[in-house]
Write a structure and sequence with these properties.
Blueprint (H helix, E strand, L loop, with lengths): L18 H6 L4 H18 L25 H14 L12 H21 L9 H19 L8 H7 L9 H7 L4 H12 L2 H4 L4 H15 L9 H16 L9 H13 L9 H7 L2 H5 L5 H13 L13 H16 L6 H13 L7 H13 L7 H25 L14 H35 L7 H29 L13 H4 L14 H51 L1
Helix pairs in contact: 2-5, 3-4, 4-5, 8-10, 8-11, 11-12, 11-18, 12-16, 15-16, 16-18, 17-18, 17-20, 18-20, 20-23
Protein backbone atom coordinates (compact mmCIF):
# COMPACT_ATOMS: atom_id res chain seq x y z
CA UNK A 1 0.00 0.00 0.00
CA UNK A 2 1.30 3.37 -0.95
CA UNK A 3 1.71 5.74 1.98
CA UNK A 4 0.40 9.19 1.32
CA UNK A 5 2.60 11.85 2.84
CA UNK A 6 1.04 14.97 4.32
CA UNK A 7 1.65 18.35 2.74
CA UNK A 8 3.36 21.30 4.42
CA UNK A 9 0.02 23.02 4.82
CA UNK A 10 -1.38 20.12 6.88
CA UNK A 11 -1.63 22.31 9.95
CA UNK A 12 -3.40 25.15 8.14
CA UNK A 13 -6.84 23.62 8.59
CA UNK A 14 -8.29 20.46 10.15
CA UNK A 15 -8.42 17.15 8.30
CA UNK A 16 -11.66 16.29 6.54
CA UNK A 17 -12.23 12.61 7.25
CA UNK A 18 -15.59 12.25 5.57
CA UNK A 19 -17.54 14.27 3.08
CA UNK A 20 -19.86 15.55 5.83
CA UNK A 21 -16.96 17.74 7.02
CA UNK A 22 -16.75 19.31 3.58
CA UNK A 23 -20.43 20.09 3.75
CA UNK A 24 -19.84 22.10 6.94
CA UNK A 25 -17.55 24.50 5.03
CA UNK A 26 -20.02 26.74 3.23
CA UNK A 27 -17.46 28.32 0.96
CA UNK A 28 -16.56 24.92 -0.54
CA UNK A 29 -20.07 23.68 -1.26
CA UNK A 30 -20.03 24.81 -4.87
CA UNK A 31 -16.67 23.10 -5.46
CA UNK A 32 -17.83 19.85 -3.86
CA UNK A 33 -20.98 19.81 -5.99
CA UNK A 34 -18.93 20.32 -9.15
CA UNK A 35 -16.39 17.61 -8.37
CA UNK A 36 -18.94 15.06 -7.21
CA UNK A 37 -21.12 15.67 -10.24
CA UNK A 38 -18.11 15.03 -12.46
CA UNK A 39 -17.26 11.85 -10.57
CA UNK A 40 -20.82 10.62 -10.85
CA UNK A 41 -20.75 11.12 -14.62
CA UNK A 42 -17.45 9.26 -14.90
CA UNK A 43 -18.68 6.42 -12.67
CA UNK A 44 -21.94 6.01 -14.61
CA UNK A 45 -20.06 5.92 -17.88
CA UNK A 46 -17.60 3.25 -16.78
CA UNK A 47 -19.98 1.22 -14.57
CA UNK A 48 -23.67 1.92 -15.16
CA UNK A 49 -24.80 -0.37 -12.38
CA UNK A 50 -22.83 1.19 -9.59
CA UNK A 51 -24.67 4.47 -9.07
CA UNK A 52 -28.44 4.42 -9.22
CA UNK A 53 -29.01 7.58 -7.26
CA UNK A 54 -26.48 10.40 -7.35
CA UNK A 55 -27.69 13.61 -5.80
CA UNK A 56 -25.48 16.49 -6.94
CA UNK A 57 -26.82 18.74 -4.21
CA UNK A 58 -25.30 16.55 -1.50
CA UNK A 59 -21.69 15.76 -0.81
CA UNK A 60 -22.41 12.02 -0.41
CA UNK A 61 -23.20 9.72 -3.32
CA UNK A 62 -25.95 7.31 -2.24
CA UNK A 63 -26.05 3.82 -3.78
CA UNK A 64 -29.30 1.94 -4.36
CA UNK A 65 -28.74 -0.40 -1.44
CA UNK A 66 -27.78 0.20 2.18
CA UNK A 67 -24.52 2.07 2.56
CA UNK A 68 -21.52 0.55 4.22
CA UNK A 69 -20.43 1.99 7.57
CA UNK A 70 -17.03 2.74 6.06
CA UNK A 71 -14.82 1.36 8.85
CA UNK A 72 -11.09 2.24 8.78
CA UNK A 73 -10.18 -1.31 7.79
CA UNK A 74 -12.44 -1.07 4.78
CA UNK A 75 -10.79 2.18 3.79
CA UNK A 76 -7.37 0.57 3.97
CA UNK A 77 -8.52 -2.38 1.89
CA UNK A 78 -10.00 -0.09 -0.75
CA UNK A 79 -6.90 2.06 -0.90
CA UNK A 80 -4.78 -1.04 -1.45
CA UNK A 81 -7.16 -2.24 -4.15
CA UNK A 82 -7.12 1.10 -5.92
CA UNK A 83 -3.37 1.16 -5.95
CA UNK A 84 -3.22 -2.38 -7.26
CA UNK A 85 -5.83 -1.85 -9.95
CA UNK A 86 -4.96 1.61 -11.28
CA UNK A 87 -1.81 3.22 -12.56
CA UNK A 88 -1.20 6.17 -10.17
CA UNK A 89 2.40 6.72 -11.12
CA UNK A 90 1.47 10.09 -12.59
CA UNK A 91 0.30 11.40 -9.23
CA UNK A 92 2.97 12.00 -6.63
CA UNK A 93 1.92 10.70 -3.18
CA UNK A 94 3.04 13.88 -1.41
CA UNK A 95 0.86 15.95 -3.75
CA UNK A 96 -2.31 14.63 -2.11
CA UNK A 97 -3.35 16.29 1.17
CA UNK A 98 -4.62 14.02 3.94
CA UNK A 99 -8.11 15.50 3.88
CA UNK A 100 -8.44 14.97 0.12
CA UNK A 101 -7.11 11.42 0.36
CA UNK A 102 -9.55 10.47 3.12
CA UNK A 103 -12.41 12.12 1.27
CA UNK A 104 -11.71 10.13 -1.91
CA UNK A 105 -11.12 6.87 -0.04
CA UNK A 106 -14.35 7.21 1.91
CA UNK A 107 -16.33 7.97 -1.21
CA UNK A 108 -14.97 5.03 -3.18
CA UNK A 109 -15.31 2.66 -0.23
CA UNK A 110 -19.05 3.15 -0.19
CA UNK A 111 -19.33 2.66 -3.93
CA UNK A 112 -17.13 -0.41 -3.92
CA UNK A 113 -18.90 -2.03 -0.97
CA UNK A 114 -22.30 -1.58 -2.55
CA UNK A 115 -21.06 -3.00 -5.81
CA UNK A 116 -19.48 -6.05 -4.18
CA UNK A 117 -22.83 -6.88 -2.61
CA UNK A 118 -24.44 -6.73 -6.00
CA UNK A 119 -22.29 -9.28 -7.72
CA UNK A 120 -19.02 -11.05 -7.96
CA UNK A 121 -17.41 -8.62 -10.37
CA UNK A 122 -15.25 -6.01 -8.62
CA UNK A 123 -15.61 -2.48 -9.98
CA UNK A 124 -12.59 -1.03 -11.61
CA UNK A 125 -12.35 2.76 -11.41
CA UNK A 126 -10.08 3.63 -14.29
CA UNK A 127 -10.26 7.34 -13.50
CA UNK A 128 -8.90 7.30 -9.95
CA UNK A 129 -5.92 9.40 -11.01
CA UNK A 130 -8.27 12.03 -12.40
CA UNK A 131 -10.30 11.89 -9.21
CA UNK A 132 -7.18 12.55 -7.15
CA UNK A 133 -6.36 15.46 -9.41
CA UNK A 134 -9.85 16.79 -8.75
CA UNK A 135 -9.19 16.48 -5.04
CA UNK A 136 -6.00 18.48 -5.40
CA UNK A 137 -7.97 21.12 -7.27
CA UNK A 138 -10.43 21.30 -4.35
CA UNK A 139 -7.54 21.91 -1.97
CA UNK A 140 -6.06 24.64 -4.16
CA UNK A 141 -9.41 26.39 -4.46
CA UNK A 142 -9.87 26.21 -0.71
CA UNK A 143 -6.48 27.76 -0.07
CA UNK A 144 -7.27 30.49 -2.62
CA UNK A 145 -10.57 31.24 -0.88
CA UNK A 146 -8.96 31.32 2.55
CA UNK A 147 -6.12 33.60 1.43
CA UNK A 148 -6.77 37.22 2.46
CA UNK A 149 -7.64 39.55 -0.43
CA UNK A 150 -4.98 42.06 0.59
CA UNK A 151 -1.68 41.64 2.37
CA UNK A 152 -2.20 42.65 5.97
CA UNK A 153 -0.55 45.90 7.08
CA UNK A 154 0.07 46.47 10.81
CA UNK A 155 -2.09 49.15 12.42
CA UNK A 156 0.84 51.33 13.48
CA UNK A 157 1.99 51.50 9.85
CA UNK A 158 -1.54 52.06 8.54
CA UNK A 159 -1.86 55.17 10.70
CA UNK A 160 1.14 56.71 8.93
CA UNK A 161 0.02 55.59 5.48
CA UNK A 162 -3.22 57.56 5.89
CA UNK A 163 -1.14 60.68 5.31
CA UNK A 164 0.03 59.63 1.86
CA UNK A 165 -2.25 62.19 0.22
CA UNK A 166 -0.05 64.98 1.63
CA UNK A 167 2.56 66.56 -0.60
CA UNK A 168 5.23 66.44 2.13
CA UNK A 169 4.67 62.87 3.26
CA UNK A 170 7.22 61.80 5.90
CA UNK A 171 8.79 58.66 4.47
CA UNK A 172 11.50 58.58 7.13
CA UNK A 173 8.98 58.10 9.94
CA UNK A 174 7.16 55.36 8.04
CA UNK A 175 10.42 53.58 7.28
CA UNK A 176 11.26 53.63 10.97
CA UNK A 177 7.95 52.09 12.12
CA UNK A 178 8.00 49.57 9.25
CA UNK A 179 11.44 48.22 10.21
CA UNK A 180 12.98 49.28 6.91
CA UNK A 181 10.22 47.78 4.72
CA UNK A 182 8.55 51.01 3.68
CA UNK A 183 8.46 50.26 -0.06
CA UNK A 184 6.61 47.01 0.53
CA UNK A 185 3.84 48.62 2.56
CA UNK A 186 3.52 51.81 0.52
CA UNK A 187 3.20 49.85 -2.72
CA UNK A 188 0.69 47.37 -1.32
CA UNK A 189 -1.46 50.12 0.12
CA UNK A 190 -1.49 52.14 -3.09
CA UNK A 191 -2.24 49.16 -5.33
CA UNK A 192 -5.16 48.39 -3.06
CA UNK A 193 -6.36 52.00 -3.01
CA UNK A 194 -6.58 52.08 -6.79
CA UNK A 195 -8.25 48.65 -6.91
CA UNK A 196 -5.44 47.21 -9.02
CA UNK A 197 -4.91 44.05 -6.97
CA UNK A 198 -8.44 42.87 -7.64
CA UNK A 199 -8.67 44.42 -11.11
CA UNK A 200 -5.68 42.51 -12.45
CA UNK A 201 -6.08 39.49 -10.15
CA UNK A 202 -2.65 39.81 -8.56
CA UNK A 203 -2.08 36.86 -6.19
CA UNK A 204 -1.23 38.18 -2.76
CA UNK A 205 1.68 35.81 -2.21
CA UNK A 206 3.12 36.70 -5.63
CA UNK A 207 2.86 40.43 -4.86
CA UNK A 208 4.51 39.96 -1.49
CA UNK A 209 7.34 37.89 -2.96
CA UNK A 210 7.89 40.43 -5.73
CA UNK A 211 8.08 43.37 -3.32
CA UNK A 212 10.47 41.48 -1.04
CA UNK A 213 12.81 40.91 -3.99
CA UNK A 214 12.52 44.52 -5.15
CA UNK A 215 13.26 45.85 -1.68
CA UNK A 216 16.21 43.49 -1.44
CA UNK A 217 17.51 44.78 -4.79
CA UNK A 218 17.38 48.35 -3.53
CA UNK A 219 19.57 47.32 -0.60
CA UNK A 220 22.10 45.45 -2.74
CA UNK A 221 24.71 48.23 -2.69
CA UNK A 222 23.69 49.84 0.63
CA UNK A 223 23.35 53.30 -0.92
CA UNK A 224 22.73 56.28 1.37
CA UNK A 225 20.28 57.87 -1.09
CA UNK A 226 19.21 55.55 -3.92
CA UNK A 227 17.53 52.93 -1.77
CA UNK A 228 14.04 51.64 -0.92
CA UNK A 229 13.19 54.82 1.02
CA UNK A 230 13.83 56.93 -2.08
CA UNK A 231 11.75 54.52 -4.16
CA UNK A 232 8.89 54.78 -1.67
CA UNK A 233 9.18 58.58 -1.65
CA UNK A 234 8.98 58.77 -5.46
CA UNK A 235 6.08 56.28 -5.52
CA UNK A 236 4.14 58.36 -2.99
CA UNK A 237 4.83 61.54 -4.95
CA UNK A 238 3.56 59.84 -8.10
CA UNK A 239 0.45 58.87 -6.14
CA UNK A 240 -0.03 62.54 -5.26
CA UNK A 241 0.02 63.39 -8.97
CA UNK A 242 -2.46 60.62 -9.73
CA UNK A 243 -4.79 61.46 -6.88
CA UNK A 244 -4.57 65.12 -5.97
CA UNK A 245 -3.65 66.36 -9.45
CA UNK A 246 -6.32 64.21 -11.08
CA UNK A 247 -4.06 62.21 -13.40
CA UNK A 248 -5.86 58.98 -12.46
CA UNK A 249 -8.96 60.31 -14.23
CA UNK A 250 -6.94 60.76 -17.43
CA UNK A 251 -5.34 57.31 -17.46
CA UNK A 252 -6.70 53.81 -17.94
CA UNK A 253 -6.37 51.18 -15.22
CA UNK A 254 -3.41 49.61 -17.02
CA UNK A 255 -1.72 53.01 -17.29
CA UNK A 256 -2.26 53.74 -13.60
CA UNK A 257 -0.78 50.33 -12.77
CA UNK A 258 2.19 50.95 -15.07
CA UNK A 259 2.77 54.40 -13.57
CA UNK A 260 2.97 53.07 -10.02
CA UNK A 261 5.06 50.10 -11.14
CA UNK A 262 7.53 52.40 -12.90
CA UNK A 263 7.89 54.49 -9.76
CA UNK A 264 8.51 51.40 -7.64
CA UNK A 265 11.28 49.95 -9.83
CA UNK A 266 12.73 53.12 -11.35
CA UNK A 267 16.04 52.82 -9.41
CA UNK A 268 16.04 49.04 -8.80
CA UNK A 269 19.57 47.75 -8.07
CA UNK A 270 21.07 51.25 -8.30
CA UNK A 271 24.83 51.07 -7.81
CA UNK A 272 25.12 54.36 -5.92
CA UNK A 273 27.14 55.87 -8.75
CA UNK A 274 26.23 57.96 -11.79
CA UNK A 275 26.06 56.96 -15.43
CA UNK A 276 29.16 59.04 -16.06
CA UNK A 277 31.08 57.01 -13.48
CA UNK A 278 30.12 53.77 -15.24
CA UNK A 279 31.21 55.16 -18.59
CA UNK A 280 34.49 56.61 -17.33
CA UNK A 281 35.38 53.47 -15.37
CA UNK A 282 34.37 51.15 -18.23
CA UNK A 283 32.13 49.02 -16.04
CA UNK A 284 30.45 45.83 -17.25
CA UNK A 285 27.11 47.61 -17.10
CA UNK A 286 28.37 50.40 -19.36
CA UNK A 287 29.70 47.84 -21.84
CA UNK A 288 26.37 46.00 -21.80
CA UNK A 289 24.29 49.09 -22.54
CA UNK A 290 26.80 50.88 -24.79
CA UNK A 291 27.28 53.89 -22.49
CA UNK A 292 23.68 55.07 -22.99
CA UNK A 293 21.27 55.41 -20.06
CA UNK A 294 23.33 52.72 -18.36
CA UNK A 295 21.57 52.65 -15.00
CA UNK A 296 18.08 53.24 -16.36
CA UNK A 297 18.42 50.33 -18.78
CA UNK A 298 19.63 48.13 -15.95
CA UNK A 299 16.73 49.09 -13.66
CA UNK A 300 14.26 48.05 -16.33
CA UNK A 301 16.03 44.89 -17.41
CA UNK A 302 16.61 43.61 -13.89
CA UNK A 303 13.04 44.39 -12.78
CA UNK A 304 11.36 42.72 -15.76
CA UNK A 305 13.71 39.77 -15.39
CA UNK A 306 12.17 39.18 -11.97
CA UNK A 307 8.80 38.73 -13.64
CA UNK A 308 10.11 35.68 -15.51
CA UNK A 309 9.66 33.77 -12.25
CA UNK A 310 5.98 32.83 -11.96
CA UNK A 311 6.20 33.22 -8.18
CA UNK A 312 7.16 36.88 -8.70
CA UNK A 313 5.14 37.74 -11.80
CA UNK A 314 2.57 40.30 -10.70
CA UNK A 315 1.57 40.73 -14.35
CA UNK A 316 0.65 37.09 -14.94
CA UNK A 317 -3.05 37.81 -15.46
CA UNK A 318 -2.65 40.69 -17.93
CA UNK A 319 -3.68 40.02 -21.49
CA UNK A 320 -1.09 40.29 -24.27
CA UNK A 321 -2.40 43.71 -25.27
CA UNK A 322 -2.41 44.95 -21.68
CA UNK A 323 1.12 43.67 -21.11
CA UNK A 324 2.36 45.35 -24.30
CA UNK A 325 0.86 48.71 -23.29
CA UNK A 326 2.05 48.26 -19.70
CA UNK A 327 5.65 47.49 -20.60
CA UNK A 328 5.79 50.21 -23.23
CA UNK A 329 4.75 52.89 -20.75
CA UNK A 330 7.05 51.62 -17.99
CA UNK A 331 10.06 51.58 -20.32
CA UNK A 332 9.31 55.11 -21.55
CA UNK A 333 8.92 56.45 -18.02
CA UNK A 334 12.01 54.85 -16.46
CA UNK A 335 14.27 55.78 -19.37
CA UNK A 336 12.97 59.31 -18.92
CA UNK A 337 14.62 59.50 -15.49
CA UNK A 338 18.03 59.73 -17.18
CA UNK A 339 19.26 63.21 -16.27
CA UNK A 340 21.07 63.56 -19.59
CA UNK A 341 17.65 63.81 -21.31
CA UNK A 342 16.34 66.42 -18.85
CA UNK A 343 16.31 69.47 -21.13
CA UNK A 344 15.05 67.43 -24.07
CA UNK A 345 12.08 66.39 -21.93
CA UNK A 346 11.28 69.95 -20.95
CA UNK A 347 11.48 71.15 -24.54
CA UNK A 348 9.17 68.35 -25.73
CA UNK A 349 6.53 69.03 -23.09
CA UNK A 350 6.72 72.78 -23.68
CA UNK A 351 5.91 72.15 -27.33
CA UNK A 352 2.95 69.95 -26.38
CA UNK A 353 1.58 72.54 -23.98
CA UNK A 354 1.80 75.46 -26.42
CA UNK A 355 -0.30 73.64 -29.03
CA UNK A 356 -3.97 74.48 -28.99
CA UNK A 357 -4.93 70.84 -29.53
CA UNK A 358 -5.86 68.96 -26.37
CA UNK A 359 -4.44 65.68 -27.63
CA UNK A 360 -1.45 65.08 -25.33
CA UNK A 361 1.06 62.25 -25.64
CA UNK A 362 0.56 60.16 -22.52
CA UNK A 363 3.89 58.36 -22.60
CA UNK A 364 5.95 61.54 -22.86
CA UNK A 365 3.79 63.29 -20.27
CA UNK A 366 4.05 60.47 -17.74
CA UNK A 367 7.80 60.26 -18.35
CA UNK A 368 8.06 63.90 -17.27
CA UNK A 369 5.83 63.24 -14.26
CA UNK A 370 8.11 60.45 -13.00
CA UNK A 371 11.23 62.49 -13.73
CA UNK A 372 9.90 65.44 -11.74
CA UNK A 373 8.88 63.16 -8.86
CA UNK A 374 12.37 61.66 -8.92
CA UNK A 375 14.02 65.06 -8.33
CA UNK A 376 11.24 66.52 -6.20
CA UNK A 377 12.80 66.44 -2.72
CA UNK A 378 13.90 70.14 -2.94
CA UNK A 379 10.21 70.96 -3.45
CA UNK A 380 9.16 69.23 -0.20
CA UNK A 381 9.23 70.74 3.27
CA UNK A 382 12.65 71.54 4.74
CA UNK A 383 12.31 68.82 7.40
CA UNK A 384 12.37 66.30 4.52
CA UNK A 385 14.51 68.10 1.96
CA UNK A 386 17.48 68.70 4.27
CA UNK A 387 17.92 65.00 5.29
CA UNK A 388 17.59 63.98 1.63
CA UNK A 389 20.29 66.47 0.67
CA UNK A 390 22.70 65.12 3.29
CA UNK A 391 22.11 61.55 2.08
CA UNK A 392 22.56 62.49 -1.57
CA UNK A 393 25.77 64.42 -0.93
CA UNK A 394 27.19 61.53 1.07
CA UNK A 395 26.50 59.22 -1.88
CA UNK A 396 28.23 61.70 -4.20
CA UNK A 397 31.21 61.90 -1.85
CA UNK A 398 31.48 58.10 -1.73
CA UNK A 399 31.63 58.09 -5.53
CA UNK A 400 34.36 60.73 -5.32
CA UNK A 401 36.32 58.46 -3.00
CA UNK A 402 36.07 55.67 -5.58
CA UNK A 403 37.16 58.03 -8.33
CA UNK A 404 40.20 59.02 -6.30
CA UNK A 405 41.12 55.35 -5.82
CA UNK A 406 40.75 54.65 -9.55
CA UNK A 407 42.72 57.73 -10.56
CA UNK A 408 39.70 59.28 -12.29
CA UNK A 409 38.88 62.98 -12.25
CA UNK A 410 36.25 63.99 -9.72
CA UNK A 411 32.71 64.19 -11.04
CA UNK A 412 30.85 67.41 -10.18
CA UNK A 413 29.86 67.65 -6.49
CA UNK A 414 31.79 64.47 -5.63
CA UNK A 415 34.86 65.97 -3.94
CA UNK A 416 34.06 66.09 -0.26
CA UNK A 417 36.86 68.60 0.38
CA UNK A 418 35.81 71.31 -2.05
CA UNK A 419 32.06 70.94 -2.71
CA UNK A 420 29.87 73.80 -1.48
CA UNK A 421 26.61 72.07 -0.56
CA UNK A 422 24.45 75.17 -0.09
CA UNK A 423 25.57 76.72 -3.36
CA UNK A 424 25.01 73.47 -5.23
CA UNK A 425 21.44 73.18 -3.91
CA UNK A 426 20.60 76.76 -4.83
CA UNK A 427 21.78 76.08 -8.38
CA UNK A 428 19.88 72.80 -8.47
CA UNK A 429 16.66 74.53 -7.41
CA UNK A 430 17.06 77.51 -9.71
CA UNK A 431 18.08 75.74 -12.90
CA UNK A 432 16.64 72.23 -12.62
CA UNK A 433 13.85 71.69 -10.10
CA UNK A 434 11.91 74.99 -10.30
CA UNK A 435 11.68 75.07 -14.13
CA UNK A 436 10.73 71.39 -14.18
CA UNK A 437 7.97 71.75 -11.60
CA UNK A 438 6.65 74.86 -13.36
CA UNK A 439 6.33 73.00 -16.65
CA UNK A 440 4.82 70.03 -14.83
CA UNK A 441 2.18 72.32 -13.32
CA UNK A 442 1.35 73.71 -16.75
CA UNK A 443 1.09 70.18 -18.11
CA UNK A 444 -1.29 69.16 -15.32
CA UNK A 445 -3.45 72.21 -16.01
CA UNK A 446 -3.70 71.26 -19.67
CA UNK A 447 -4.58 67.69 -18.76
CA UNK A 448 -7.38 69.07 -16.59
CA UNK A 449 -8.70 70.91 -19.64
CA UNK A 450 -8.50 67.68 -21.62
CA UNK A 451 -10.54 65.81 -19.00
CA UNK A 452 -13.05 68.66 -18.87
CA UNK A 453 -13.40 68.54 -22.64
CA UNK A 454 -14.10 64.80 -22.46
CA UNK A 455 -16.72 65.37 -19.77
CA UNK A 456 -18.42 68.10 -21.83
CA UNK A 457 -19.72 66.65 -25.15
CA UNK A 458 -19.69 69.09 -28.04
CA UNK A 459 -23.04 70.50 -29.13
CA UNK A 460 -24.48 69.18 -32.35
CA UNK A 461 -22.40 66.03 -32.30
CA UNK A 462 -23.84 62.86 -33.77
CA UNK A 463 -25.41 60.22 -31.56
CA UNK A 464 -22.50 57.92 -32.23
CA UNK A 465 -20.00 60.54 -31.05
CA UNK A 466 -22.09 61.24 -27.97
CA UNK A 467 -22.17 57.55 -27.26
CA UNK A 468 -18.41 57.32 -27.46
CA UNK A 469 -17.97 60.27 -25.10
CA UNK A 470 -20.55 58.87 -22.70
CA UNK A 471 -18.59 55.64 -22.60
CA UNK A 472 -15.40 57.62 -21.97
CA UNK A 473 -17.08 59.55 -19.15
CA UNK A 474 -18.27 56.29 -17.66
CA UNK A 475 -14.72 54.93 -17.73
CA UNK A 476 -13.37 57.99 -15.96
CA UNK A 477 -16.11 57.84 -13.35
CA UNK A 478 -15.54 54.16 -12.73
CA UNK A 479 -11.81 54.76 -12.36
CA UNK A 480 -12.49 57.49 -9.85
CA UNK A 481 -14.90 55.25 -7.94
CA UNK A 482 -12.32 52.49 -7.77
CA UNK A 483 -9.75 54.85 -6.39
CA UNK A 484 -11.91 56.24 -3.65
CA UNK A 485 -14.22 53.39 -2.76
CA UNK A 486 -11.42 50.89 -2.31
CA UNK A 487 -9.52 53.35 -0.14
CA UNK A 488 -12.09 53.30 2.65
CA UNK A 489 -11.94 49.52 2.69
CA UNK A 490 -8.16 49.53 2.79
CA UNK A 491 -7.83 52.00 5.64
CA UNK A 492 -10.79 51.08 7.77
CA UNK A 493 -13.90 53.03 8.76
CA UNK A 494 -13.80 56.74 9.27
CA UNK A 495 -11.06 57.50 6.73
CA UNK A 496 -12.02 59.80 3.88
CA UNK A 497 -10.18 60.15 0.62
CA UNK A 498 -8.95 63.73 0.92
CA UNK A 499 -5.77 65.48 1.83
CA UNK A 500 -5.12 65.57 5.53
CA UNK A 501 -4.25 68.99 6.95
CA UNK A 502 -0.71 69.52 8.10
CA UNK A 503 1.21 72.21 9.91
CA UNK A 504 2.47 73.65 6.64
CA UNK A 505 -0.13 75.44 4.57
CA UNK A 506 1.61 74.44 1.36
CA UNK A 507 1.14 70.74 1.99
CA UNK A 508 -2.57 71.13 2.75
CA UNK A 509 -3.41 73.58 -0.02
CA UNK A 510 -3.67 70.96 -2.78
CA UNK A 511 -7.14 70.03 -3.96
CA UNK A 512 -8.24 66.98 -5.86
CA UNK A 513 -8.36 67.46 -9.61
CA UNK A 514 -11.76 66.31 -10.85
CA UNK A 515 -11.39 67.19 -14.48
CA UNK A 516 -13.40 70.40 -14.22
CA UNK A 517 -10.85 72.45 -16.13
CA UNK A 518 -9.73 74.45 -13.09
CA UNK A 519 -6.06 74.96 -12.40
CA UNK A 520 -4.66 72.75 -9.67
CA UNK A 521 -2.88 74.00 -6.59
CA UNK A 522 0.92 73.79 -6.61
CA UNK A 523 2.18 73.12 -3.07
CA UNK A 524 5.75 72.76 -4.31
CA UNK A 525 6.04 76.46 -5.19
CA UNK A 526 6.04 77.67 -1.58
CA UNK A 527 8.35 74.83 -0.48
CA UNK A 528 10.86 75.71 -3.18
CA UNK A 529 10.87 79.34 -2.10
CA UNK A 530 11.36 78.45 1.56
CA UNK A 531 14.10 75.92 0.88
CA UNK A 532 15.98 78.28 -1.41
CA UNK A 533 15.83 80.95 1.29
CA UNK A 534 17.25 78.49 3.82
CA UNK A 535 20.09 77.55 1.51
CA UNK A 536 20.85 81.19 0.74
CA UNK A 537 21.13 81.89 4.44
CA UNK A 538 23.42 78.89 4.88
CA UNK A 539 25.49 79.93 1.86
CA UNK A 540 25.96 83.33 3.43
CA UNK A 541 27.13 81.76 6.70
CA UNK A 542 29.37 79.35 4.83
CA UNK A 543 30.93 82.27 2.97
CA UNK A 544 31.58 84.06 6.26
CA UNK A 545 33.13 80.95 7.77
CA UNK A 546 35.23 80.40 4.66
CA UNK A 547 36.40 84.01 4.72
CA UNK A 548 37.32 83.64 8.37
CA UNK A 549 39.19 80.39 7.70
CA UNK A 550 40.98 81.96 4.75
CA UNK A 551 41.97 84.91 6.92
CA UNK A 552 43.29 82.61 9.63
CA UNK A 553 45.10 80.54 7.04
CA UNK A 554 46.65 83.68 5.55
CA UNK A 555 47.71 84.95 8.98
CA UNK A 556 49.20 81.59 9.82
CA UNK A 557 51.13 81.59 6.56
CA UNK A 558 52.47 85.11 7.19
CA UNK A 559 53.49 84.07 10.70
CA UNK A 560 55.30 81.04 9.30
CA UNK A 561 57.08 83.22 6.75
CA UNK A 562 58.20 85.66 9.46
CA UNK A 563 59.42 82.80 11.63
CA UNK A 564 61.37 81.24 8.78
CA UNK A 565 62.88 84.66 7.89
CA UNK A 566 63.92 85.24 11.51
CA UNK A 567 65.51 81.80 11.65
CA UNK A 568 67.39 82.46 8.41
CA UNK A 569 68.70 85.84 9.70
CA UNK A 570 69.87 84.30 12.95
CA UNK A 571 71.77 81.59 11.10
CA UNK A 572 73.53 84.20 8.97
CA UNK A 573 74.67 86.17 12.02
CA UNK A 574 76.12 83.05 13.55
Amino acid sequence: MVKYQSMSYRNRYSTLQVSWKLQQRANLNFVVVMVFSSLCVVARKDHPGILTNCNPSCSIVTPSKKRSTGQPSAISDLTRQLVDEDDLSEVQPDAVPDEVRDWLATTFTRHATAQRRRGDDKPRFRSVANAIRAGIMVDKIYRRICTPAVMQIPNNITKHLKNMDNWSFDVFSVNQVSSGQILRYVTTDLLNRYGLISKFKIPVTVLENFLIHVESGYGKYKNPYHNNIHAADVTQTVHYMLCQAGLANWLTDVEVFATLFAAVIHDYEHTGTTNNFHVMSGSEMALLYNDRAVLENHHLSAAFRLLKDENLNVLQNLSKEEYRDFRGLVVEMVLGTDMSSHFHHLKTIKTLITHKELNIDKAKSMALVLHCCDISHPSKEWRLHFPWTKLLMEEFFQQGDKERELGLPFSPLCDRNTTLVAESQIGFINFIVSPSMEILGDLLDKIQLTIAQINRPAEGSSSEENGDKTECNSRIKSTKDVNYASLDTANGPGFEYKANPSSNSASSSATLGLGNGKKIQRPWVLCLEHNKAFWQERAKKDAEIKALEDGQRSSSKEHQDETSHFSFSSSEKQ
